[in-house]
Amino acid sequence: MSDTDEPIPAKVRTPGSVLDMIANPAARTYLMISMGGLIASCFLVFLHFNSMFGAIILFIIGAGGLLARWSSAPPVFVLFLGYVAIFPYVVPESEVFRFRQNVLKMMIQPGDILVLGSVMVYLLGSLRLYAITHTGMPFEAPKMFIKPKTKPTIRPRTPIGDLELWMLFVRVGLFVLLGQVAWNLITKLRVDFQSNIPITTYPLNYAYDRYRGTGEILPSYVSQFLIAVAFISLMVLLCSFTLYYLWLLRMNRDEARMVVLDQAWSTARRDYNRPESWRAWQKKKLLGMLPRKGCGAWFLVIGVPIILVMIGLFLLRWLLSFR
């Protein structure tokens, strides 16, 4: 090849493509973790719920989301998994009511824990893979200030440490156990405002929904809804306060000074703004920049209310004329 000949440029890979995920060590690791969780969850769905067709559809949704970079695949996967848990044969049947009563009486099941664990591995792996191939941090500025060709910040192409992988599976275990505890609290407890302690347990020989319309205690679905709202609200408050204080503990001196100045400005901004507004008005008055003619704000303050009152009196008189 002569010196004048230009080299043939290599084919540019699109961000987040399959080849780019394979070449990126971090993306490759999370791609394998997500595929492993997806295959395990589909296999366990087939064994636990006896639904081959549902497992095939779940695998298509999950694999398509990983390979084609569908950001909406994880929520669709979760929604269809809940549908398969109620209707194992995908087609709606009348057995759902008996299934609901049996589920409410069950304790922690090993099959449910395995399915939830594998699904959590798939979801967390998909989230990390999205952060590596698409964007790691969202834009903080409003959309109107973001340039069209602005590239998002993605995670560096570095291998993943062992501690990060261990913490990933530790989070999966904690989430699964917390979900099982929440499920048992919601299904085994009931709200009874007639007792001294408003939250009690169901009797052993109690039939769900047998008492509808009796008025003695709340129906089971209302009681479970109230307990679920209370549990979720409590967890949100605890997590928000915990994360907030962790953020405060990790804050350095410059960040703390910035937060204090911002809070001071937010508190006293009205007091700062009032004299500046009067000073600007006085300066415009001395320079002769104030409007000399027109009613201006006086019409909005006095004229508009008078017009509305007159219209209201006219309508009232018109309505009374029909009597």
Structural class: mainly alpha
Radius of gyration using CA atoms only: 31 Å
Order of helices and strands: HHHHHHHEEHHH
- Give the strand tally: 2
Average pLDDT works out at 76
Q: What does the overall shape look like?
A: extended
- Our measurement of the CA-to-CA distance between the termini, rounded to an integer number of angstroms, reads 102 Å
Sheet of most strands: 2 strands, antiparallel
What portion of the residues fall into strands of 2 or more residues?
under 5%
Tally of alpha and pi helices: 10
Question: Helix content range of the residues, please?
Answer: 55-70%
Which ranges are low-confidence, i.e. pLDDT below 50, for 5 or more consecutive residues? 1-15, 208-215
Order of strands in the sheet with most strands = 1-2
Comma- or semicolon-separated keywords:
single chain, 323 residues, mainly alpha, 10 helices, extended
Give structural notes.
There is one protein chain. This protein is an all-alpha fold and 323 residues long. The protein is built from ten helices and two strands, in the order αααααααββααα. It has helices at residues 18-23, 25-49, 52-67, 73-86, 95-105, 110-133, 162-188, 220-249, 253-287, 297-320, and strands spanning 189-191, 199-201. Strands 1-2 form a two-stranded antiparallel ribbon. Helix 2 runs antiparallel to helix 6, helix 3 runs antiparallel to helix 4 (73-86) and helix 6 (110-133) crosses helix 7. The protein starts with 17 loop residues before the first helix and ends with a helix.
Topology:
Blueprint: H1 18-23, H2 25-49, H3 52-67, H4 73-86, H5 95-105, H6 110-133, H7 162-188, E1 189-191, E2 199-201, H8 220-249, H9 253-287, H10 297-320
Antiparallel strand pairs: 1-2
Helix pairs in contact: 2-3, 2-6, 3-4, 6-7, 7-8
